[in-house]
Amino acid sequence: MGNIVLEKVNKCFGDVEVIPSVDLDIKDGEFVVFVGPSGCGKSTLLRLIAGLEDLTGGKIIIDGVDVSDSTPAKRELAMVFQSYALYPHMTVRKNIAFPLKMAGMDQAEIDKKVEAAAKSLNLTDYLERTPGLLSGGQRQRVAIGRAIVRSPSAFLFDEPLSNLDAALRVNMRIEITDLHKELKTTMIYVTHDQVEAMTMADRIVVLQAGDVEQFGSPLDLYNKPVNRFVAGFIGSPKMNFATGKDAEEFNAHEIGFRPEHMTVSTTEGRWKGVVSVAEHLGADTFLHVKTENAGTFVTRSDGELNINYGDTVYVSPNTDKIYRFGADGLSL
Amino acid sequence: MARKVSIGRKVGFTALAWTLGCLMFFPIFWMMLTGFKTEVGAIASPPQFFFTPTLESYKDVIEQSNYMRFVMNSIIIAGGSTLLALVVAIPSAWSMAFSPTKHTKDVLMWMLSTKMMPPVGVLVPLYLMLQYFGLLDTRTGLVIIMMLINLPIIIWMLFTYFKEIPSEILEASRMDGAVLWKEIVYVLLPMALPGIASTLLLNLILAWNESFWTLNLTASNAATLTQFISSFSSPQGLFFAKLSAASTMAIGPIMVLGWFSQKQLVTGLTFGAVK
Ligand SMILES: Nc1ncnc2c1ncn2[C@@H]1O[C@H](COP(=O)(O)OP(=O)(O)OP(=O)(O)O)[C@@H](O)[C@H]1O
Ligand SMILES: [Mg+2]
Q1: Does the B56-269 domain belong in CATH 1.10.3720.10?
Q2: Which of A113, A316, B100, B153 is the 20 to 30 A CA-CA neighbour of A146?
Q3: What are the residue ranges spanned by the domains of chain B?
Q4: Tens of pLDDT along A217-244?
Q5: Model ipTM?
Q6: Which residues are CB-neighbours of A13 under 8 A, at least 6 positions away?
Q7: A73 touching B, CB under 8 A?
């Protein structure tokens, strides 16, 4: 079981309030991703759940038990750190066995579990090496191995893939997703990579300055952002915004429209502008269009588009895909 | 980084290093030499470099005093105080390195500042306290005093070594279910072993050679090798050969220890300096 509830969780470092008040209810077996800009408190929130930081206020309840004052050991969660945090003086075998040894399991049982975990993570050939002799990807797998052997009630990941190169990241992302499908254990995953968040999560928590802006499924966040911040944060390239007369026309203080919901034409359209950057990625083409009176917009069209730097174009948003915001930033 | 050093400079530096080394070693060498002379030979002028060595002084020294008792006392007091200090210092350094508060820096500075005070300043109060507890001239009393005297240095050294260890690794062990003592024993200590070993060695040497407290707080029962040497200086007048023989015997054990652990000492003491 791994149902994790946060009630009015508050955290201050000295006089600095990092997490004002967070309420969350993470269901058993759910894959939840925390995203948000750097410094918004993602790691702090995760470490509070782990028990590595003390709460300043509020409660954390795991499977109905208030663990607010419990040590990390008592919470029975497993964590994978960005730096892997393997024990450098122990072999891979001992690293993976460590949590079992701490739990006082007998040696034969430990060996069996370690072998099984190593096999599922392709680490069998490396069991007798120390972590210093492994590649980044292998170290990451050892860290995951160390987390899964103990069958914890939930896994916590803090940007586990950010030290890996792009190709390996994609592989590990899939491995972790597969792992979740197989184990069906609650996972909380911190990242600032949009793609990781959108592809892995059952539900995403968007944080800003320690506040939960929205908690919902990836498509919910994409289609129905509750406010301007979430709208601008989710989606890549970012949503375009316009104010003033353009917004008033839609009865809003500000309107937003995604790059993929815009049409580009050489003859007619809502805004006339000049292409300041043209990114031809093959499958897609991104244009940054500097309009005469509404700012710069980014558009996304298919790869065939034959428009280049310096060209004059007309861009228009698809009117049925417009997001409207009030003066307070909330969606209308 | 391979930097070209000219032959001339290499020779110059080597010569300088050897000269300094010899200068520092000479008094010890001379002392060892004098121990094998007769009392007359020891004060001969001009000094004798070539002479027929004799074990006369060593024989006298051993006959006149109970060398082994002093050695045992030195071992117990230096070793005991070092081990006891480590037991206290490891948790203290752990807490200062891994869960510092606003005042950690002040505490560290305060500890260091106790070493800036001349020890005579606290001699009388400490003497009276030991007397009150009946610990004057006892090994227990000396172990406690020596432990307290060297504690600041030990904590400082361990603190610097612990600082080098990424706290995430300790946090990982906490997540893996390690309680505090297991975290320290299974994770922190093995990782800090080189640092702990050199702290231990250095402190053994310091405690072995310490003379102020041992001379002032012991008379006979707990007297260490420093007492042993000094007993050959004043009451006997200037018996240089015997004094030299006694001194050589006093520093012998610690020199042997230092010799065999020099590699460990150097790596430990330069730990962190060269990354
Ligand atoms: N031990 C600490 N003492 C004081 N302030 C801290 C401490 N740890 C974190 N903070 C502050 O809390 C805020 C949130 O930090 P946190 O590490 O949770 O951010 P984050 O969202 O994980 O950022 P990133 O994406 O860069 O990892 C930051 O402003 C940081 O400076
Ligand atoms: Mg972080």
Answers
A1: yes
A2: B100
A3: 56-269
A4: 999 999 999 999 999 999 888 999 999 8
A5: 0.86
A6: none
A7: yes
